[in-house]
Amino acid sequence: LPDDTRTEPLCSALSPTAFNYGSAASQLSQINVPNAHAQGYHGEGVTLAMFDTGFRTTHEVFASTFAEGRFIAQYDFIFHDSVTANEPVDAIGQWDHGTLTWSTAAGLKDGQLYGPAFKANIILCKTEDIRSETPVEEDNWLAAVEWVSTLGADVISSSLSYTDWYNATNYDGRTCVTTLAANMADTLGILVVNAMGNSGPTSPSLGAPADAFKSLSCGAVNSSSTLASFSSRGPTFDGRTKPEVCARGVSTACATSSNNTSYGGASGTSLSTPLVAGAACLVIQARPGFPPSLVRQAMMETANNAATP
Length: 309
Description:
- Helix 4 packs parallel to helix 7 and helix 5 (136-149) runs parallel beside helix 6 (177-187).
- It is globular and about 45 Å long.
- With 309 residues, the protein is α/β, with parallel strands linked by helices.
- It contains eight helices and eleven strands.
- The strands form three sheets. It has a seven-stranded parallel β-sheet, with helices on both faces. A two-stranded antiparallel ribbon has the order 3-4.
């Protein structure tokens, strides 16, 4: 959206405990989200695009997104229709992963779960087919970047990683299909927040598009801010440090797809990524003139370990 359509903070005097965060309280406090919320930043006017497997759109944690008119659009790049929930041709668990990630980034059920950007505008992209792992899914990802750019997306949250048809030499920021698409997104004014992958503790370890030059790639930590053993370490083949930042990716609170009122916990860089993406929406709301590169820089430089990453 144009900068002048983003809302100003609604309040600057709320207590950080004004919201009943429920099971999300710890993971949000770990990355200082309650203080941003207290200053009136909840994601209003910022557009977040979720790239994932599909979404249980009827879950109660997403109800306010629809009720408040913040749902922008959805598209299924697998079957080329406008249904991102499960369809008869889908595997039964198709919407599981996307439900976890969307709820973590921008869900809202008072007393149960909050995402950092619980007032953001939302675009849903179903790009990943869990029935197989093939290069067409990267093509879907690229097509989704092009599509959301026409809808005013500010941030892409992508808890997806591609490794099966690449090797370590390909993670140079210039080779993989989704990496090139992530680089393109930056030129279109979109910040790509992407999961590092779960190939740790070996190093180097990561998957595309986490190696993109301007992506904000996310590792996973536990409740004590210790790096999770599974979190991919980087670096890229050309020697760049990855990930840039970390968030809770061990027993992260989220909604689940079992039914419309189910909640639970999940682990992986897939869960730390939407926390970072939601936080990025708050930075953009606070600094609407920042291009993606400055949003990325601001989040890196204010991370708790920025002095000795």
